Amino acid sequence: MRGAKSAKFVAGAIVVALAATACGSGDGEDKKNTGSGKPAGYVSIDVGEPQKPLIPADTNESNGSYVIQSLFTQLLDFDAKGEIVYTNAESVTTEDSKTWTVKLKSGWKFHNGEAVTAQSYVDAWNWYANIKNNQQNSFWFADIAGYDDVHPEKGDPKADKMSGLKVVDETTFTVELKDRVPYFNYKLGYTTFAPLPKVFYDDPKAFGQKPVGNGPYKFEKWTHKKLIQVQAWDDYKGPNKAANKGIQFKNYSSLEAAYQDVVSGNLDIIRQVGPTDLPKYKQDLGKGAIEEPYAAIQTLTPAFYSKTFKDVDPKVLQGLSMAIDRDTITKTVLNNTRTPATSFTPPQVKGNQELDTDIFTYDPKKAKALIKEGGGVPGNKVWIQYNTDGGHKEWVTAVCESIRNATGVDCVGDAKPDFATDLEARDNDEVKSMYRGGWVADYPVNVNFIKELYHTNAESNNGRFSNKKIDAKMAEGDKAESLEEAVKAYQEVEKLLVKEMPAIPLWYYRINGGHGENVDNVNVDFHGDIELPQVSVK
Amino acid sequence: MGRYVARRLLQMIPVFIGSTLLIFLMMYALPGDPVRALMGEQAFDPSVVENIRRDLGLDLPIWQQYANYLGGLVQGDFGTEIASQRPIADIIAEAFPVTIRLTLFAFTFTVLVGIGLGVIAGLRPDSVRDRGLLTLTLVLISMPSFVLGYLMQYFFAFQLQLTTPTVQDSESIGDLFLPAIVLGSLSLAYVARLTRTSMAENLRADYMRTAVAKGLPRGRIVGVHLMRNSLIPVVTFLGTDIGNLMTGAIVTESIFNVQGVGDAIFEALTRREGATVVGIASLIVIVYLLTSLLVDLLYAVLDPRIRYA
């Protein structure tokens, strides 16, 4: 009987163990069958779990932005060519680039029936900008007069309203800026400038889980880490009214898994095909394969404080640029997912120009000569810092190989295990010589690619490039009377960049995605997002 | 025996605290700041980063952060995620049931098929079926799980169209079938080989000859005398394997898109969500401790010579 007795204890211990390990499972049971099943007429796309609650000014990563763009509509948007299309606004006008008048289309409503008024915008912007609310995109409002009162660099805010925002009537408000910003209306296309309904202020935290917007879709449900579902909103009045009945944003733990689901018809759209499937996705998907360029650029950014590049002669950088065989690398290693760069700005933005230079052309002889002329690279060795969790290793190796063969300068990758570590090294000025830089357009104007990256005080200028002449030229552009003049001034700045080389542009991005046979009209906007409202279901 | 179990359970408390401390310190030692990483490659405002860090207590010294964390944990509060601002208890409650289900399937598959194959082969050592099993398990052991995963996906989902390539609903048994088989197949190979060798050895033991000489029916000889003695190494292996199945599922989970523990901990790690990593990892430590306790108790059942005071 001894055996039987100990068996009883074992059974007891099993019960204890199960109770301990399964303590959480009761919660999962009542959510049964939330993962599968797509209502008819809905479109599914692989968009993962947003990092943060769904508040327009607190999201800048792509998963969250996708959902927010479907739920909220700002004043204006851009077409595929980067031209302004008015959505919620009737017009956005200015006489002096300093005071802007916004007229809203009347009759617009939030999903809960509340009217979208000038006040909805002004209150939302004031809330977003307030330092107490810790909104990630709060600095977008920094152009507006009175921003420093609600968002001081240190300490508590002195006011809760920006003095530059004034409501004129139900559908009109004015925005006064600190200084002239000729391209301010282009900034308004960013999702951060979306309005908020009154229910938001009652409980922002709950709102972030169940947002109420004014966009083409209204929120249905969010099963964390699995799926977000939004439904087309019948009363939507904007030009981008949904052509489908709704969208399911499905979370995938790998690009490969999502791809398998598109091929087998369980998922409609994949935003980016993984590297393993790139060589065959055009055959697999046929007409459903998407290959579109969008406004983003990848660069090698020298750290101007590093031993390698401190007080470097720009000729050395020009030489390194000419030592990179962009054509071959984009075609082979990168499987045509990029287009070789020919300037500092991608073609989709206003002010992109043909630069009269050969620094983007592969020419080993001249590259060698230029580096020699510029005094060579100290130690005859450069490092390229990159993060290993983003699929960069292959091209970094190829670029290094190209530089080494063309110029004899030794080049090695400096791998950081993940993006967080990579960013920390950049922020703390610990880059050994160059890092992999990337930039996606926030608004389709060349200013966005020049000022945000190469101005001495720009937050993203992690190479610490600093040139007084160029800063002065940018300031001139910002004082311009009109957008055209500002763009022109920045084009002049870009010409100077070629001489000073704050970065080595490598290539522009392309989106390589695809869709299944059940959907049609899958188009891509200027920053590489799928235009979901246009997608139609067969 | 009751006292033995109680003592073992009590011993888990210091182990749990020690493991949380270790993982906490490791997360702290990793480079990369979670709040800064949240801002990504775009422009951002450093004063907002400072503010969020202060609100979450991330600017405090490490010992104070740990004290705060333990203080919350004692009250059943696992903390809040930095980015999503959701309670970590919710994240654990979502991930664990999925993984436990997958693990149980894989485990059942391993036990049934593994021991079954082992018995079939072990009863006739050096026969054709024995060599067949050795070859099959050799293939399984040497094949990385992602190769097997993609192979199964290709074969069952695209050629035969029996299932969908990925898991659509992590609560349906049919959907979890494929990943469970892939997950369990490596352990299956080990279990089959262990059982086979152990049985083949014990076949020649003295007590076996005695049992045969006594004229016992063959079923009883194999089922009671042989099996019970041969299963000890197998049970030891299976015990530690439960823990491995739960934590080692990252690759399988990503191939079949199962949002379980592996996926959750990997994501938390790359985003430097310290509290999430510590919470999940500590729970896994507990799972390991409990299964090793179970194994120790099972020894007593299998072998009456082993007793716990």
Automatic annotation (TrEMBL), chain B:
<keyword id="KW-0813">Transport</keyword>
<dbReference type="InterPro" id="IPR045621">
    <property type="entry name" value="BPD_transp_1_N"/>
</dbReference>
<feature type="transmembrane region" description="Helical">
    <location>
        <begin position="133"/>
        <end position="156"/>
    </location>
</feature>
<feature type="domain" description="ABC transmembrane type-1">
    <location>
        <begin position="96"/>
        <end position="299"/>
    </location>
</feature>
<comment type="similarity">
    <text>Belongs to the binding-protein-dependent transport system permease family.</text>
</comment>
<dbReference type="Pfam" id="PF00528">
    <property type="entry name" value="BPD_transp_1"/>
</dbReference>
<protein>
    <submittedName>
        <fullName>ABC transporter permease</fullName>
    </submittedName>
</protein>
<keyword id="KW-0472">Membrane</keyword>
<dbReference type="InterPro" id="IPR000515">
    <property type="entry name" value="MetI-like"/>
</dbReference>
<keyword id="KW-1133">Transmembrane helix</keyword>
<keyword id="KW-0812">Transmembrane</keyword>
<feature type="transmembrane region" description="Helical">
    <location>
        <begin position="102"/>
        <end position="121"/>
    </location>
</feature>
<feature type="transmembrane region" description="Helical">
    <location>
        <begin position="176"/>
        <end position="194"/>
    </location>
</feature>
<dbReference type="Pfam" id="PF19300">
    <property type="entry name" value="BPD_transp_1_N"/>
</dbReference>
<feature type="transmembrane region" description="Helical">
    <location>
        <begin position="12"/>
        <end position="30"/>
    </location>
</feature>
<dbReference type="InterPro" id="IPR035906">
    <property type="entry name" value="MetI-like_sf"/>
</dbReference>
<feature type="transmembrane region" description="Helical">
    <location>
        <begin position="277"/>
        <end position="302"/>
    </location>
</feature>
<keyword id="KW-1003">Cell membrane</keyword>
